[in-house]
Amino acid sequence: MRVLKFVGYVFVLLIVIVIAALFFIDIIAKFAIEEEGTKAVKAKVEVDSVDVRFFPLGASIHGLKVTNPQAPMTNAFEAELIDANLDWEPLLKSKVIVETAALEGMRFNTARSVTGAVPGLTPPPSQEPSLVDQFKEDMKLPAIDIPDPNELLARVDLKTVSMAKEMEASLAARKKAWKERIDGLPNKETLESYKQRIKALKEAKNPLERLQAVAKVKDLQSDAKKDLQKIRDAKSDLEKEVAQLKADLAKVKAAPQEDMKRVMELAGLNPGAWEGLAKALFGDEVAKWANNAYMWYGRLQPYINGSGEEAQKSAPEPDTTDYSDGLPRFLVKTLSISGKLPIPQQDVPFSGKFNNLTDRADVWGKPAQLALQSQAQGVGKMDFKGVLDHVTAIAKDSFSFDLKDLPVTDLVFSDKEDFPVTLSKAIAAIAGKADITDGKLAMNVDAKFLEVQLANLLEGESAPLKKALLNALKNISQFDVNMLASGALQDPQVKITSSLDKILSQSVKGLIDEEKKKLSGKVQAKLNEIVSEKVGGLDSELNGLVDINALLQERIGDFSNLL
Question: How many domains in the chain?
């Protein structure tokens, strides 16, 4: 009897233990999700409740909140309900295979009332510059700074000065050389000597002396012809040199025009500099969207290729999983999704499906596919498609995004005190495509804004530059923005252009042209002073060589008369 009684006690105890386990399993599951989730995210993961069921096997998680570890006062993600049905058999092989699952009430970047940071676990904010920081480096409103003419000229190596110095040295050397050559040429003394000798010969009286004189006169005339040829050769050489020097002087006199062009380019008064203003206006907002996209793409990686951050930092543990059944360790065959997607100043309700979400696409043999559509037509028509193909060794992910008729209100483009700009109202259409192949990004996004109303613009601005820009912005009713990104996924080259570039550039062109004209006049006056000082004396120096030419011409005439 005692034995039977003991067995009865044991049986009752087992029943109590089983009932207690079943009663507390939801609490245990809730604790496990929060504990393990917090370790994985490195910030608080919280759930309101967990319901575990055995027939069919599955679980429901209510009120999931996942803290953003880089912004602990913000939830990166919330879900009202996560419900999943699991297969029994794969669990025996330590595999989680979900036939169908639902993820409802998704919300992103929601505020927290208390910090979600966990002491000793949550890392400090990253010190590496984000895309937002990179864009902010360029977010400076250009200014029309009128430089000092003297400072500008001092910064430029003026060709006029260097060419004038070279020519001045060349003229001095040539004048010296010609002086030496002229000194060696037959001169008036030589000519007078010929005249006296010929005269003496002609004065001979007896016939024999006269006959001899005729021959000697011919010899003297022959010598005079040779001297004349020397003078003519010198004159010819001089004329060639003078012609070349005149051409060189013309280049020196033309140099100030080139110098003027270079100086004005250095001044930076170019309307083209304003063509990047769209990046200054939209860069911050675009970078925030891109940062969010990068964040979620990165968080998907562990579930689509099994290569999460920790796996990359340390050597992977040996994988002893049996894949002979064709099943990976983790697989969600069909995940139904619904929630609200944060798009500028709007939460767009959406629904969709995520198929073949797995950590080993190479085992499963099918790429993950994501398709989302907006639910409320009144706040934009959205269509998002994605294919994450990690079946082969070279991963290729493709995304396309099309959003139409999105009402936009109170979108701050610039919060600078000196130039605030807010998009008060508009209808937006945004379309984009992105391909990520083996870690290389190629992305193109086009956004069009119609029925535009801008607000928060400065009133009564007297500064000419801002006044011109503000007048242009007030008259804008539509514009477009294009963003191109390419290169390494973590450090892409980004280019933003907009139709506003041309509009704003044209608005300041007249103002810049006026300031440029004023500066040009001042620079030209200063340059003229330099030209007058450096180039003015070259004409007189060159005229000195021209005077030598006249001297040679005179000698040629004198010697020719002798003959």
Answer: 1
Residue 215 belongs to domain spanning? 149-268+519-562
543 belongs to a structural domain: yes
Tell whether 540 is covered by a domain.
yes
Task: Give pLDDT tens digits for 230-285.
Answer: 878 888 888 888 888 888 888 888 888 887 777 777 666 665 555 666 666 666 66
> What is the rounded CA–CA span in Å between residue 494 and residue 509?
27
The three-state (H, E, C) secondary structure of 62-125, written as one string: EEEEEEECCEEEEEEEEEEEEEEEECHHHHCCCCEEEEEEEEEEEEEEEECCCCCCCCCCCCCC
Strand segments (E) across 438-492:
440-455, 479-488
The distance of Cα 493 from the centroid of its chain, to the nearest Å, equals: 6
Taking Cα atoms as reference points, which of 57, 95, 59 lies closest to residue 322?
A: 95
- How do residues 358-409 score in pLDDT, each as one tens digit? 888 889 999 999 998 887 665 668 888 999 898 988 889 999 989 888 888 8
In sequence order, the 6+-apart residues with CB closer than 8 A to the CB of 198 are 217, 220, 221, 562
Half-sphere exposure of 120 (CA within 13 A, CB side): 0
Main-chain phi, psi angles of 41, to 5 degrees: -85, -25
**DSSP label of 460:** S
Alpha-carbon 122 to chain mean position: 34
The answer to the question of residue 260 being in a domain is yes
Q: State the amino acid at position 19 in one-letter form.
A: I
CB atoms within 10 A of CB 550: 10
User: In degrees to the nearest 10, what's the CA dihedral of 319, 325, 327, 328?
Assistant: 0
Does the global pTM surpass 0.85?
A: no
Q: Is residue 554 in a domain?
A: yes
